[in-house]
Every structure is written in structure tokens, then in C-alpha cells.
Amino acid sequence: xxxxxxxxxxxxxxxxxxxxxxxxxxxxxxxxxxxxxxxxxxxxxxxxxxxxxxxxxxxxxxxxxxxxxxxxxxxxxxxxxxxxxxxxxxxxxxxxxxxxxxxxxxxxxxxxxxxxxxxxxxxxxxxxxxxxxxxxxxxxxxxxxxxxxxxxxxxxxxxxxxxxxxxxxxxxxxxxxxxxxxxxxxxxxxxxxxxxxxxxxxxxxxxxxxxxxxxxxxxxxxxxxxxxxxxxxxxxxxxxxxxxxxxxxxxxxxxxxxxxxxxxxxxxxxxxxxxxxxxxxxxxxxxxxxxxxxxxxxxxxxxxxxxxxxxxxxxxxxxxxxxxxxxxxxxxxxxxxxxxxxxxxxxxxxxxxxxxxxxxxxxxxxxxxxxxxxxxxxxxxxxxxxxxxxxxxxxxxxx
Length: 399
Ligand SMILES: [Zn+2]
Known about the structure:
This protein has helices at about 5-10, 55-60, 65-75, 100-105, 110, 120-130, 150-160, 180-185, 200-205, 210, 215-220, 240-250, 260-265, 270-275, 295-305, 350-355, 360-370, 375-390, and strands spanning about 80-90, 135-140, 165-170, 190-195, 225-230, 255-260, 285-290, 310, 320-330, 330-335, 355. By secondary structure, it is an alpha/beta fold. Helix 7 (about 150-160) links the parallel strand 2 (about 135-140) and strand 3 (about 165-170).
């Protein structure tokens, strides 16, 4: 059974003891505590010795009452002291060109989170997880309006700042030569983040190998790189062609460290039920939870592929949006109080006043699914840190 949540919560005024509070380090003294991240390619000093810009107390004063209540009463006891987010976007507003009204209408997220400078990512983590240390696997924006090359360069530049506490993937265009991947990995990228919108066929028509060409996969396989894969096609992970290509990819390029984004875009249960069973016996295929807010899908994923293959992903900055999501059959409806062009269906002011961040809603759904599956904080710690750390070859002395 999961932990009895109400009993497990620390008192609201409990002292902060996580690695995120720089005055109280949880490690025993010794030479190992400064040797935090050691991937095959890069090493960071331990960021837990860096100064905080805001204290946890200050953060709590910024939170809206609904955020504070959720964090303190439903989330805090479930979070490990060190979180590893495997899916966040970083970029400057200037990296994006104009977006047409048609595109705004077709892709709701395009209007919500087009840019997130490094400083903003850190500030968002501090706001959302005020007592935890957060490391991240990041990449640039993925839409065709983005200046991908400039955005990649910006991401790479930020990796050298220890306070960013991050690794990164190169956003790739299918037409670029495979040698750019090898060069990028030499510079410090851990792998690639391709995206169907960058294929000439577009989101709806592209197959996996149209936007992740085999030549790219060949190089990635040789270098044992990471691939965060956003599935194409309207049927998402429930599309038999996606399943077939995923299995082929995993068979042909077995050294690629494969993360299927957003649980295969199975935001609704029937989609997950059509796709996940085909991938259940593939222990090398991982799934990130990014921007998925459906407890039924998480529960089904826990039962089908298990807690060892789920990885926490935030999809920041999109999930800083406040609101709720409703799932109806195979579609979902986002409700928010923000003035986006697509936001024409609103709840009552009383309901909107109770909105919190989409990311908190994602975590609420995940915790609810863990409880339903009879799993507790150990499974949460796997999903929030250990699984991704194992996949990326990261060790931490914080946990
Ligand atoms: Zn994303």
C-alpha cells in the first residue's frame, strides 16, 4: 500500500532539510559530496553549495493559497529531495519568429510556452519545488517557427553554468547531416530531440523515420545517445504504424536510450490501452510523464510497464499554465484563466480561483495513480529521480 498520506505529511512549519536549502546540507562531510553529476561526457560541481536567490519562506509567500495548499498538503511528502526532470524547454523569446493565427489555433501549446530563458527555468523550479534540488535534461523549442540553430547554441552555452544543473539534447532537423549529431555530442549534448513538426510532411502525415532519419539513428546508436521521441500521427501511441516503427527503432538501434515523450501522447485512457500493451515487454523503452494530467493513464502505465520505466518530465514552460484538463473519450479539454486566443470556454470565477499550475495537476494525477496502484514514495522517487539518473548515468549524493 502507499503511504498514508495525511499521516505522512510533515507539519507545515517543519524545518527545511533538503539539499535545496543551501544552509543545511544533508550530506555527511567528505570529498564525495562535491562530485555530483558524472555522465560519460560532462561533470558538474555540486550545485547544492550554490547560493539560493530566494529562501523557501519567500517562495511560499509568492505562492497563491491554492498552490501553497496543494504543495504542503498533497505534494511535499511525496517529493524526493533531489528531482530530475527529463523534459523541459529552454530558449529566448527572440528565437521564435511570427506565428500565424492558423498555427495558434492548431497547436494550443504554441501560444503558452514559446520561450523560457535559463534564469526563468531555475526560477520556475524554485517556485514549484521550493525545498528540493532540481536537475534537468533540457532542449530548445521544437516548432518550425523557432530558429533551431540559435536556440541549440543558447542551450549549449547554458550547460557550462553550474547553477543551471542541467544536461541537454540537440533539437534536430531531419535534413541536417548526421555528422552534426556527433559534433553536438562532442560539445556536450547527450543526444537528440527531434520533432514531427520539423518534418516536411508535417505533424499529421510524418512517420517516425521521416523526422528521425535512419542516418541520425545510426550515429546516435554508435554514441549511445538519448532520444526523446514525440510520436507523430493523430492516433498517437495507439496508431499501429507508430507501434511498429517504435519496435523497429528499438530493435535496429538497441543502444539508443529511448524515452517516449508524454507516455506516447496518450493523454486519454483508450489511447494508452491501444498502444502500451505492445511495448510492455520492452524494458529498454522509457516513457516520460510530461504534460500528461490523466491519473487513469498513469495508473494504466504503472500496471502495464511498471514504475521502473516512467520518468518525470515537466514540459516547462507550458505547464506553468494554471488550469485543469478534462478527458472525454479520446479528447481532452484544457481550461485556464489565461488570455490565450483559443481560451473561449471558461469555468466560473470561483472555479478559476482554485486553479493551480498544470505541473501540479500532473503530479496530483501521478500521486493519485500511485496510491491506486498500491505504490508509495519509493516508486515516486524512482519516477522523479532514480530512473532518469540511471538512464543518463547520473549519480547524486543527495539521495
Ligand atoms: Zn515538450
